Amino acid sequence: MIRCEATIDSDVKFANTNDGQPYPEIKEWGHKWEKPVLTYKLHNLSPDIEKAEHQTRAITVAFRVWQLRIKNLRFRRIYDDTEPDLDIWWKPLSDFSSPGVLAHATYPGQSHFYIEINDEWDWVSHTAISDIGHPPLVPVMIHEIGHILGLVHDTEDKVSIMYPSFNLGKKKNDLGIRDIIRIQFIYGVRNISQRLIDYFRRRRDAGWDFD
Ligand SMILES: [Zn+2]
């Protein structure tokens, strides 16, 4: 079983109440991004994925999955020396609590925002070429971005992208209905055609973003 471990500062608290939340059984995080644009930067590259642009594209593709659903927050990649809101790093095994952890992330409202990806694994960019020994970056990044946006794990629904573990060798390229309802509760509903959403999912499933 492959896990994600979200990191929580000791001085930050969960929401005091789940009143009005769409899923009362989930104890939601009490903070969200209040600004209209979240900026991010990929600081280094993994030797696993030969083409550098495939690494950054996997992150772009993962952000787009959330972007298609929400209204009140947008994402922008930073290329220059400007300080981003979110740092994304490949890290060695020593930065993780166990070899079984694929990646981890922080939550909004904390002092530092990062996603760290465990480079001990031999990664590939997307699910069309992944297998049991090669985790795909796109779905793992979709999950970690969910934490960055403020979603905690959904331990009830295995279809949810926020389910805490990931079955290697299986395709998981989209949000579950519970993920969608939870993120739209926080950042509003983007009205967009289902055809467009389906088109981008087909692209992810087939790996067309990486041709
Ligand atoms: Zn997680």
Task: Please give a handful of descriptors for the protein shown.
4 helices, 211 residues, Collagenase (Catalytic Domain), 7-stranded mixed β-sheet, alpha/beta
Note down, in words, how this protein is organized.
The protein is of the alpha/beta class and 211 residues long. The chain has one domain: Collagenase (Catalytic Domain) (3-Layer(aba) Sandwich). 25% of the residues lie in helices and 15% in strands. It has helices spanning 52-67, 137-149, 177-187, 194-206; strands spanning 2-4, 37-42, 74-77, 86-91, 101-105, 114-118, 165-166. Strand 5 and strand 6 form a beta hairpin. Helix 1 (52-67) crosses helix 2. The mean pLDDT is 90. The structure holds zinc ion. Zinc ion is lined by residues 4, 6, 143, 147, 153, 164. Zinc ion binds at residues 4, 6, 143, 147, 153, 164.
| Regions with little confidence, pLDDT below 50 for 5+ residues | none
In N-to-C order, the SSE pattern is EEHEEEEHEHH
Secondary-structure content class? alpha/beta
CATH topology: Collagenase (Catalytic Domain)
Q: Work out the number of β strands.
A: 7
Helix content: 25-40%
Mean pLDDT: 90
Strand order of the largest sheet: 3-2-4-6-5-1-7
CA-atom Rg in angstroms: 16 Å
Number of domains: 1
| Main CATH class | Alpha Beta
Instruction: Report the sheet with the most strands, covering strand number, pairing sense and barrel closure.
Output: 7 strands, mixed
Q: Note the total helix count.
A: 4
* End-to-end C-alpha gap: 30 Å
Percent of residues in beta strands? 5-15%
Q: What spatial form do the alpha-carbon principal axes imply?
A: globular
